[in-house]
Specification:
Pfam families: KhtT_N, TrkA_C. The chain is built from three helices and nine strands, in the order βββββαβαβββα. It is of the alpha+beta class and 160 residues long. 18% of the residues are buried.
Length: 160
Amino acid sequence: MEVKEVLLPGVGLRYEFDNADGNRIGVIARRSGDFEVVLYGAADPDQARPVFRLTDEEADALAQILGAPRLVERFADLTKEVPGLGAGQVEIVATSPFVNRPLGDTKARTRTGASIVAIVRDEEVLASPGPADVLHADDVLVVIGTEYGISGVRRIVDQG
């Protein structure tokens, strides 16, 4: 799918694409952080009808809803292309020594070579978590690495 990006001086950026139904959809990313979704009419492709507006926080929530199921799927697809690389999920159990502690305290990447690429918490996905992101009981870590690295992350979060 082709997404066209247009600079709107003083406003922000507009992204446009045609969906499968033949509608032209636009998303205006305003400098203020707000987003506006518009629909272009077939009769006049320069005339846009506003559909809805989202605050920065609402846009993040929508992106997580739309992207969460696809994130793990994309990592799984990636690992099929690279021999020896796998994707795994590691749950933070309530008895983990890392509950309510920052991810960086695990030193998982340094100790195992595996990367924690997302934290799934309830229906929310925190992609590319940083070392300061705090882990909670029942979080699920999405881990990319060798089989040994993934099992190492599991061992670390379970035992310390």
